[in-house]
Each structure stands twice: as structure tokens, then as C-alpha cells.
Write a structure and sequence with these properties.
The complex is a heterotrimer. By secondary structure, chain A is α+β, with helices and mostly antiparallel strands. Chain A has five helices and eleven strands; from the N terminus they run H-E-E-E-E-E-E-H-H-E-E-E-E-H-H-E. In chain A, the strands form two sheets. An eight-stranded antiparallel β-sheet of chain A has the order 1-4-5-6-10-9-8-7, with helices on both faces. A three-stranded mixed β-sheet of chain B has the order 1-3-2, sandwiched between helices. The longest helix of chain B is centred in the N-terminal third of the chain and has 18 residues, at 44-61. Chain B is elongated, with a radius of gyration of 25 Å. By secondary structure, chain C is an alpha/beta fold. Chain C starts with a helix and ends in a 5-residue tail after the last helix. The relative contact order of chain C is 0.23. Classes of the chains: A alpha+beta, B mainly alpha, C alpha/beta. At the B-C interface, helix 1, helix 2, helix 6, helix 7 and helix 8 of B face helix 1, strand 3, strand 4, helix 2 and helix 3 of C.
């Protein structure tokens, strides 16, 4: 994704290691969620970028090819991705609301993707109830085409618990990289637990 | 890196000295383009044309291209009538981009954004914008803008155009168009000239010239209702001083024949795309702007269930104080019409659910599922009914 | 635009190292006694530009067209020498229903190629899970290309070549006198060979140097030789 490429560039210039190994064992994500992957993943290290303590992104084959994004406890009134003041001025992302139904969370994801990728070619489908981290939640699928004109397939799963949004989004190129790590991404989704929620 | 590469390519030290002193600025205005014109490949113009030819080849393959034959033929005919003896040099591409714009590349590639089709209220308004773009094309404004940019060394912009050229694989054509838009930022004089040409072309083709000023007036109203800083808007970044232009166009239109708006046939042509155009607009979450736009689209007072439904969607998604009541009102207005989209019931259900009126929410959701039993989201809608009902 | 920019940054960082750096996954092309290996040459992605005095890149149509021809004929000659059959991509050879798949494959190769450039060539962007391994693929949907063109492999070539203009050269000269480094022209690109049965990228070579010339046949031949020097035979 575009964000990832920009982050990578910033870190490159700053001389930090942008990708950190995630071992196949139970790990906590943003102190809000834990998951147990069955393969090693590469976490995009965002520690050095101020103001971006929101979503955590993992990738197996590089962010342009596939990625797992964790939204770990998004609060009421906050967008899915924290924006800088400059980004917000240019094109403010819509905010999550605690009262949102799965229908509205899906609309939020679709709008957010459309805005970030500046593409009208997003299409959600198959919204359905599903357990997430042992809670009543939802799943849906989406296809989108970014400016690079590559078709991408998206799988989303999440829940709104105690007013916060917990969600994992897996995406990859339609022709290959989504399918390539789908089982491993599914494993991460299925293993999700909310921290401090008895999950 | 060594310095021993390609020094003084066909150059002379006098030119080089001039260049260093900053004397190479080419302030000469290129002559208007003649029909059938092709630039020499060895010139700067030839270079731009080739890059644009590649962008065009990419555009033809683009996912963003609207391929409907009938709509394309319709818009192409309008462009052709306006372009006159330049008709065979103009190629029209409609792209799924939900913002107001049309562009015309120096090689004759005209791109019409779907956001323009949603905003134009009649064929004359669309013709006004296309005529304006043809005005830029005929007067080779982009070549002039390009030379200015080059001579002031807009490095970043040219870097990207150079890289994005020759098409395949790396960067999508839409990115290139964005890059080009920043390079080909027209001067006020060029905009004025394009306005004059556009007005004449649309009037000559039998369109009502007054619609040219109306387009800009609508845009000003929309931008004024935007939550975003005005200068960030794509349109206002490239088209300054809108009020002045609208006023000038209105004054000049008064001296021309009345002409026709061709509103009916425009609406008929757009009918089957309207849902997509609305969806693309709503997805942008530019609530204030969208509401203003929808209000203007409904000004004729004709019953329009789809317009009411999407207005309801914007209010529901904005979710500010008092918006739930307005959303409900719009959904109910849509539902009262025979051709209401089933989704209006879903919207109504969500509003009732939010307001804690479970009985009415269930009723609306059941109605939605009854009208659209194979809805993609039927499982989740059923769960709303089960949980609460 | 930003990706293109990233590409330039990476390319610029790489200019200090060797002119080319390749990854080879196979020792030789699949070859039988009766049939030569068949390589499909994908549409070349080549752009030549002139750098103006101020540093702007000006696209040059005549140079670019010449470079296109020179690269294709150099590749054709080289493949003939190696007893490899080269097929050229032509969109109209594919049935209309399949054309979109082929466009998607080309786009997919674009992002795979970019990923390789980032994660394989820039140490700072290395993916820890790869442990330096070169395993990149477009997946088996590349068989669409195999079927349409009856080819075993596809070769992708991407080159951006820039040359200093007279004004720029003067600035480089003045800069050198004043001890200021002014970048001149550069040749940045890559070539990539994809096995159309598996979709795997079986060979990849990156080119980055401040030398070479694609405008004349002889010099272009040198660039092509360099680009595909260790392409499996």
C-alpha cells in the first residue's frame, strides 16, 4: 500500500530498520489484541514515526503484494489511520463511532480505502455475522484497484467491543498474493484474543 | 558518479552560458494547432506527445475507463461537434473519477471524469466544460505551460513524468494524469482564452451559452459548502478566480444566441449510470459538498427517489446533531415513490436502530429483505432483526 | 508518483555500487533436443530523457523510439546466438476475452518488480523472513501468457535513461570547478525473467550506472549485453 511505501522511504532515509521479524508464537498487538501466527511475518516498524501509533501492519511478501493490518481498539471519533495535520487538511478520513453497526463499519473501511488509494474502484461484498476473538462480530470481503491498476482482494474480520473497534484486514493481489498467504492470514484472524477482556 | 558522461550533447558553450545565466526562458506563445498536426519527434513537443501517447495506451487498458459504448458515443459526439474540423484529432475517454474535471492532453486525448457527468445538469453544461478544454488544446496551452515549468525547473514534476512515461507496469495512468495536471497548471490568461474559445464553440454548436457561467456558479456553491480548505480542491487549484470568470461568461453570453440546454436527452443518457455516480460521490464522505450538490441536482423539484435515498445516506453517515431526523425524512421521501431503491429501507432501519426504535427498525429491515431477498448483506441484516427483535 | 520517486531514490543509492547485480534461480533454461526454449519479450518499458540546465527531465521521443528498436534488435541477435527463440508480445494475438488477464499480469509484474527492487536490493528494506532468499512469484496465472504465446518464459525490461543537456553539462562543469556535485545522466533499470509455468521470477538483474547510451545501435548493444550477461542460457 502507498502508506507502507512512504513509511519505508522515511525510515530508509532515517537509517532505521523498517521491517522487524514476528515469530510464529502468541504476540500482542498494540497492547490491545493478541494473535498466534503459524508462520513468521514482517512487521512494519512504525516506532520512529511520531503520531502514527494506530494500526499495525505485517507483511509476508512486501506491502505491495500482501499485508495484514490490525486495528486494535479504535476509539470513538478516531479514523482508522491517524493522519498528520497536513493529511487531514488535504483529505480528512471518516471517523469510527462506537454506535456503528457492522454495516457502517464496512462503509467506513470502504471509504477509507477509497480515500487512501484515491480510487473509486472499491467493492464490498458478503457482509455476514461471525465471531471475532470470541465476541459477536462480522466479516466481509472487498476488491479494490489502486492507482497501480493492480486488482487486490481484501478479507476483513472484526468486532466492536465496549465501544472500540477491533479488526484485522488481510489484503493481497488478486492474481496471486492474496491466495498465497490466505490460510496463514486466516490463522492469525482465528487466533485473535482481546487483551483484558477475558477473551 | 563520474562526470565523464554525455557532455555537451550537440551543444555549444554559448548556449550553455546563456542557460546558466537563466536566459533561455521561452516566452513565445506557440501558434494555434492546425487540424491533423503532428509534432517533430526530435522536439520538446514531440517528447510530450510520445509520453501522452503512452498514457493514452494505458488509459485504454485501464480499470478506471468507462467502456459503455453508448455513453462514449454520446460524449464523443458532443466533443466532436464542438471541435469542428479538429474532430478527428480528438479522442474521448471517460474515467471513473468522482470529481469535477475534464482534461485535454496536447496529443488530443480528452479525459472526462465521471464527477463532471454527475455535476453537469444538462448537455450544454457538459459542452461548456469540453469546449473550454478544446480551447486549451487548440491554443497549445499545455506546451506553453510545459516550457514555463521546464525553464523554471520544476524538477520533482518532471522527474515523475519522465519516469512515468512509456507506460507498462510501473505507474498507472491516473497517477500520470495527476502529475501532468500539476505540470500543466494553466495561467489566468490561458484560462480566460480557453473560456472565450469554449463559449464560442458551444454557442456555435447551438448550446445555451448561459450554461457556461452556471457550471462555475454551481462549483463555487459546492466548494463553499465543503469542509475541506478550498485551495485543496482539485478544481480550485487549477482554476483560480472562479467568481470573476463566471461573471465574465455571463456577460458575454448575453450577446450570443439563446441556444438550447438539451437537458432531457442528457438525463436520459445518464440514467443507467446515475447509481454508480452517486455511490462514488457518497463514498468520498465530503458531506457538506455532497449535500449541496444533491440539493442543486434536485432544484427542478421533480420526484427523484434515488436522489432522496442518497441524500439520506449522506446524512446518516455524517451522523451530526439533527442528521438522523433529516436522513429519516429523506429515506421516507424515497420510499413514498414507486421506484424507491430497496436500500432506502435498510437506511431507514439503521436510523431507527440508532434511535432505539426497535419495532420500526425490524419492520424496515424486513421490508428491505422482502424487496431484495438475495441482498449481499442479508445475513447481517437478519442478525439485526434477531438480536433486537 | 511517490513510488516512482522511491524508485529514483533507490536507484540513486544503488549508483555507488556495481553497474549490475543479478539473482539467478535456475542454471539453465528448459531445453530439449527437439525444441529451443521460447522467451516472450514483454512490451519494453523504456523512456529516454534529457536533463535540462535546471535539472528537469525532458522526455525525448526520437531517442526513446530509437532505443526501443536498438534494444529489440540487440535482444533478438543475442537470443539467436544462444539458440533461444524469441517471441514478441502483440496485444492482438490474445483473444479479446483474455486481454485483460494479460494486462493484469503485466501490472502484477510491475509491483513484484518494485518489491524486488525494494526488499532484495536495498538492505535497509530487507524482509527478515526472506533471510536473503530470492523467492518472488507472479503465480501460476502466468500460464495465460504461456498459452497465448506458446512461450516458456517471459522477459520484462524496464529502463530509464537520461542525458545531460548542453546547459546541464555546463552546470556539471561549473559545479566541478566549485567542488559542487551536480548529477548528470544515469541509466536505471531492470530485466526480469519469469517462468510461465510457475510464475516464478527465475532471474532478475538490476542496472544502475552513470554510463551507457541507448541512442545509438552500437552503444545500445553494450547496454543490452550488460543487462542480460548472466541471463540463463
Amino acid at each position: 500500500m502507498r502508506f507502507a511505501a512512504i513509511i519505508a522511504l522515511v525510515l530508509l532515509v532515517a537509517g532505521c530498520a523498517p521491517y522487524v521479524l514476528v515469530q510464529p508464537q502468541r504476540v500482542t498487538v498494540k497492547n490491545a489484541l493478541s494473535v498466534e501466527p503459524d508462520i513468521a511475518w514482517n512487521k512494519i516498524n512504525q516506532q520512529d514515526i511520531s503520531g502514527r501509533s494506530d494500526a499495525e501492519i505485517w507483511t509476508a511478501d512486501g506491502p505491495l503484494l500482501n499485508s495484514l493490518t490490525f486495528f486494535a481498539g479504535v476509539e470513538d471519533g478516531k479514523p482508522l489511520y491517524v493522519q498528520t495535520a497536513e493529511q487531514e487538511k488535504r483529505d480528512k478520513l471518516p471517523a469510527f463511532r462506537s454506535s456503528m453497526t457492522p454495516t457502517e463499519v464496512m462503509e467506513l473501511v470502504e471509504s477509507t480505502y477509497a480515500k487512501i488509494s484515491q480510487s473509486a474502484l472499491t467493492r464490498t461484498r458478503g457482509l455476514r455475522p461471525a465471531k471475532f476473538a470470541g465476541k459477536d462480530g462480522f466479516r466481509f470481503d472487498m476488491t479494490y484497484v489502486g492507482k497501480d491498476e493492480v486488482d487486490r482482494e481484501v478479507t476483513a474480520a472484526g468486532t466492536v467491543h465496549e465501544g472500540r473497534l477491533y479488526m484485522i484486514i488481510y489484503q493481497g493481489t488478486r492474481l496471486y498474493h492474496h491466495g498465497l498467504r490466505q490460510a496463514q492470514a486466516e490463522r492469525v484472524i482465528q487466533s485473535a484474543r482481546l487483551l483484558g477482556a477475558g477473551g | 558518479m563520474t562526470l565523464g558522461r554525455r557532455h555537451f550533447v550537440g551543444g555549444c558553450s554559448a548556449c550553455a552560458a546563456l542557460a546558466l545565466a537563466g536566459c533561455v526562458t521561452d516566452g513565445v506563445k506557440p501558434a494555434p494547432i492546425s487540424p491533423g498536426y503532428k509534432p517533430n519527434a526530435a522536439t520538446d513537443e514531440g517528447g510530450i506527445w510520445q509520453v501522452m501517447d503512452n498514457v493514452e495506451a494505458e488509459t485504454k487498458r485501464s480499470r478506471f475507463l468507462v467502456r459503455d459504448a453508448e455513453l462514449n458515443a454520446y460524449v464523443r459526439d458532443i466533443a466532436c461537434r464542438l471541435a469542428g474540423n479538429h474532430c478527428s484529432d480528438v479522442r474521448v475517454y471517460i474515467t471513473r473519477t468522482p470529481a469535477f474535471n475534464a482534461t485535454m492532453a496536447p496529443n488530443g486525448m480528452m479525459t472526462v471524469w465521471t464527477g463532471l457527468l454527475l455535476r453537469a445538469q444538462n448537455e450544454a453544461q457538459l459542452a461548456a466544460v469540453l469546449g473550454h478544454e478544446i480551447g486549451h488544446y487548440v491554443n497549445r496551452h499545455s506546451l506553453q505551460a510545459y516550457r514555463n515549468a521546464r525553464d523554471t525547473a520544476d524538477i520533482a514534476a518532471f522527474l515523475s513524468i519522465g519516469l512515468a512515461g512509456a507506460g507498462v507496469g510501473f505507474v498507472g495512468s491516473m497517477v500520470q494524469l495527476a502529475a501532468l495536471a500539476s505540470i500543466f497548471a494553466f495561467s489566468r490568461d490561458q484560462e480566460r482564452e480557453a473560456d472565450d474559445v469554449g463559449l464560442k464553440l458551444m454557442s456555435d454548436a447551438g448550446y445555451q451559452p448561459l450554461q457556461a457561467s452556471k457550471v462555475w456558479e454551481q462549483l463555487i456553491a459546492e466548494a463553499a459548502a465543503s469542509e475541506r480548505p478550498r485551495e485543496r480542491d482539485v478544481f480550485f487549484a487549477t482554476h483560480p478566480a472562479q467568481e470573476e470568470r463566471a461573471a465574465t461568461l455571463r456577460t458575454k453570453a448575453a450577446t450570443l444566441p439563446a441556444g438550447d440546454t438539451y437537458e432531457k436527452r442528457y438525463r436520459a443518457q445518464l440514467k443507467k449510470f446515475r447509481t454508480t455516480l452517486f455511490e462514488d460521490e457518497v463514498r468520498l464522505r465530503q458531506y457538506g459538498q455532497s449535500l449541496k450538490l444533491f440539493e442543486m441536482l434536485g432544484r427542478d423539484g421533480q420526484p427523484d427517489a434515488e436522489l432522496a435515498y442518497f441524500t439520506g445516506e449522506v446524512y446518516r453517515q455524517r451522523n451530526a446533531d439533527g442528521d438522523d431526523a433529516k436522513a429519516r425524512e429523506q429515506y421516507e421521501r424515497a420510499i413514498a415513490m414507486a421506484d424507491a431503491p430497496p436500500e432506502a429501507y435498510r437506511g431507514l432501519g439503521l436510523i431507527h436502530m440508532r434511535g432505539g426504535d426497535q419495532v420500526r427498525a425490524d419492520e424496515a429491515f424486513r421490508q428491505y429483505l422482502k424487496l431484495k431477498p438475495d441482498a449481499e448483506d442479508r445475513a447481517i441484516i437478519r442478525s439485526y432483526v434477531q438480536i433486537r427483535g | 508518483m511517490r513510488r516512482a520517486f522511491l524508485f529514483v531514490v533507490l536507484g540513486a543509492l544503488a549508483l555507488g555500487a556495481c553497474a549490475t547485480q543479478s539473482h539467478q534461480q535456475i542454471a539453465a533454461l528448459k531445453r530439449t533436443e527437439v525444441q529451443q526454449p521460447r522467451i516472450l519479450l514483454m512490451p519494453l518499458n523504456v523512456q529516454l530523457s534529457e536533463i535540462s540546465a535546471g535539472g528537469a527531465m525532458e522526455p525525448k521521443a526520437d531517442w526513446t523510439s530509437a532505443a526501443h528498436q536498438h534494444i529489440v534488435s540487440a535482444l533478438r541477435a543475442e537470443n539467436a546466438k544462444r539458440s533461444v527463440h524469441m517471441v514478441e508480445f502483440a496485444e492482438d494475438r490474445a483473444p479479446p476475452a483474455r486481454r485483460d488477464d494479460l494486462v493484469q499480469l503485466n501490472k502484477l509484474h510491475g509491483v513484484v518488480g518494485q518489491s524486488i527492487m525494494m526488499h532484495q536490493y536495498a538492505d535497509q528494506l530487507a524482509l527478515p523472513t526472506k533471510q536473503g532468499k530470492f523467492d518472488w512469484s507472479l503465480g501460476p496465472s502466468t500460464r495465460a501468457l504461456k498459452e497465448v504465446y506458446d512461450a516458456d518464459y517471459a522477459l520484462f525490461v524496464f529502463v530509464r535513461d537520461s542525458y545531460a543537456s548542453a546547459g546541464r553539462a555546463a552546470m556539471i562543469f561549473v559545479g566541478a570547478i566549485l567542488g559542487v556535485h551536480v548529477p548528470g545522466g544515469a541509466q536505471i533499470g531492470f530485466a526480469s525473467l519469469v517462468d510461465l509455468e510457475s510464475g516464478n521470477v527465475v532471474w532478475f538483474n538490476r542496472l544502475a550506472r552513470a554510463a551507457g547510451d541507448l541512442r545509438t545501435e552500437q552503444a545500445a548493444n553494450e547496454t543490452v549485453q550488460l543487462l542480460i550477461a548472466d541471463l540463463p542460457k
